[in-house]
Structure formats: C-alpha cells, structure tokens
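Researcher: I'd like a candidate sequence for this fold, 367 residues long. If you have to choose between options at a position, lean toward the conservative one.
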C-alpha cells in the first residue's frame, strides 16, 4: 500500500512539474497510417533511443517519451561543445552510438557532408506534416535542402541580463552602455569560442555594430568568460557581475520563479536581438543503432507533447501554432514587425557568421 501511495505521489509531482498532457497531446498519433504503425512496432522492439542534448531537457523528454510510447530514452546531456565533439567523432569514425542530436546550427557542415538522415522523409504523422500547424505555414529547416535540420522552436535571444538593483533600467537602453568605463571587469559572457549562446551573442553584436565595437566590449572592458549559464545568472543575482551576455532562458526563469525579481533582460532600443532555435534543431545520425526508435522520437518531438515538453523545460515558444504553454516570458516571443536577426539560416551559418567568428577568434584567442 505504501509503495502504491508513493508511486501515485511521484506521478502527481511529475504532472505538476511538467504539466499533464493536453487533449491534443493525448491524440498526437491521430490519423497515423501503416508506415507509422510499422515504424512504431519496430521501435518498440529496439526498446531504446539514444539522444544527446542540453541537460535541461533530460527529465522532460525522457519521461514524456516513455509515457507516450513505452520506449526508453538514454539521454546524454552535456555542454554543447562536448556533445557536439562526440557526435563528430562518432560520425567520422563510422562508429555511431547516438541516434538523435538536439542542438543548434553548428552542425550544418556535417549535414552538407551527408552525415544525417533525411528528417523530412521520416515525418510520418499527419499532425506533424500538416503545415497549418506551423508558424508561417511551413516546416523550418536550417539547411537549404529542407531535409536534415528541422528547427521546431523560434524565440528572441541575444539579450543582455542585468541586476536591476545595480543597473537602473532607465540607463541601460543601448548596447553602447556596455562601453561605460565603470563596467570594466564587471561583465560576464558565455564563452563565444564554445558555440551556443556565447557565439550567438558575440556574432550578433559584431554583425549589428561591427567587429571593432565587439572588441571594445570583450577586450577593452575585460569581459570574464564562463561556460556555465546557471552560474552566470547567479552571479548577476548576487551582483558579482551586474551584467551578463549569453544566459539561457531557463536559468533566468528559475530565479524569477523563486521570486527573485532583480535579474532582468535588457530591452535595448538600438538592437532587439536575434531569433534563435536554441537546442530545438533535431538531427538523425546515419548509422544510428536504433533507426526506428529515432524515427518515432522525431515524430513525437515534432508533435504536440514533445513540443510542450521542450517549451516547458526551456520557457520558449514552439513554432507549432497549436502549442500554448503557460509561463513563457513575453520578451522571448517574437513581435510582429520587429526586425530580428535570424541566425538559424543556411546563409548566416555558412557565410555571415564565418568571417565575424574568424575575427573574433583572432582578437580573443582560441579556435
């Protein structure tokens, strides 16, 4: 009896934390045809899917996917540069142990070399392929072929965060405020040499204002680098560094949910930021050990329950117009008519970013 009570309590706790599946989520396989049923049966026989991605998604995706399919997720969470390196090593060695990679835009060169399976051909569910369910009436792929790197979320990013007890909102209205001499040594940034939010932030500033302006901030202001977004948010809260560049949304949200309100995103008049896909880009690796489970995970992830799980974990909006998650901060939702820089395009990754990143590396060192 005690065991059943404890299990019931755990179920209730999980529903509170991650939300009960909506009516749409409960019917995510609606209208599926024989190809889907065949793939699902084969996936259940495989029994497991191996997924790499950020640690923040581990619980939401593993519990949600197993709940809806009965298939276990072996989730390999870690810092973006570390997981990406492993994926590259395995692909080039033709010794693949990973089925799915959830990441950003840095893997585009691998897609062009033919290392990923065709996402689009493996989208089997009507609820996923029906374009009316997606923003702009389209599935968004980073690669120009529209096959390999499906981006499921889009949100405003590359905004600085600041301690409003130390920096008054009325004085921080422009990116040029970061050049104020009193901020020298007082800014922390996610390391731009590691990719991810650090690279997105630095390349946005350079694209918007020029590489010299970027150097004046990162070099001239003696910016401190970090690879720990959660710690960066804590430093801002404590006032160790009153301004941070590259904090991930869920790390900011955790402090706000705890009632700590003096960490805030800056709304800057001369640069609204980027629209990012974050870690919502899903790729199927060629030679994966569980190809059918990977296909099922892809379809689940692009369906309502998978998109709800991601949105809740990261606090960002899905590109699916039928996914509405409470608690997503307004500032991450793209506003109509605002010209954000979209860094999740083939053109930006292969041309726009390359020269900026080269100059940045020459300025601050690293590869």
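Model: Candidate sequence:
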């Amino acid at each position: 009896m005690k065991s059943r009570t404890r299990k019931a309590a755990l179920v209730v706790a999980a529903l509170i934390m991650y939300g009960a599946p909506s009516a749409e989520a409960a019917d995510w396989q609606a209208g599926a045809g024989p190809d889907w049923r065949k793939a699902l049966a084969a996936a259940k026989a495989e029994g497991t899917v191996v997924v790499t991605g950020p640690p923040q998604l581990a619980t939401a995706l593993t519990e949600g996917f197993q709940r809806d399919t009965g298939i276990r997720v072996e989730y390999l969470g870690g810092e973006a540069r570390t997981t990406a390196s492993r994926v590259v090593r395995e692909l080039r060695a033709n010794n693949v142990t990973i089925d799915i990679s959830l990441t950003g835009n840095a893997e585009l060169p691998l897609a062009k070399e033919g290392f990923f399976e065709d996402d689009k051909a493996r989208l089997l569910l009507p609820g996923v392929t029906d374009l009316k369910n997606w923003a702009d009436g389209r599935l968004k792929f980073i690669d120009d072929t529209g096959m390999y790197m499906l981006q499921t979320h889009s949100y405003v990013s590359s905004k600085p965060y600041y301690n409003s007890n130390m920096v008054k909102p009325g004085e921080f209205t422009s990116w040029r405020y970061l050049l104020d001499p009193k901020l020298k040594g007082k800014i922390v940034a996610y390391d731009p040499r590691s990719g991810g939010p650090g690279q997105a932030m630095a390349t946005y500033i350079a694209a918007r204002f020029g590489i010299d302006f970027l150097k004046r901030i990162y070099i001239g202001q003696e910016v401190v680098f970090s690879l720990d977004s959660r710690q960066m948010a804590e430093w801002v809260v404590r006032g160790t560094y009153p301004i941070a560049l590259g904090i991930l949304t869920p790390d900011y949200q955790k402090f706000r949910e705890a009632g700590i309100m003096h960490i805030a995103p800056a709304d800057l008049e001369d640069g609204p930021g980027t629209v990012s896909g974050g870690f919502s880009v899903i790729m199927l690796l060629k030679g994966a050990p569980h190809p059918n489970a990977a296909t099922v995970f892809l379809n689940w992830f692009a369906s309502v329950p998978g998109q709800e799980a991601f949105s809740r974990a990261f606090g960002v909006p899905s590109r699916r117009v039928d996914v509405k998650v409470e608690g997503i901060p307004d500032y991450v939702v793209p506003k109509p008519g605002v010209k954000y820089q979209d860094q999740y395009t083939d053109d930006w990754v292969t041309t726009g970013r390359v020269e900026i990143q080269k100059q940045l590396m020459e300025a601050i060192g690293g590869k």
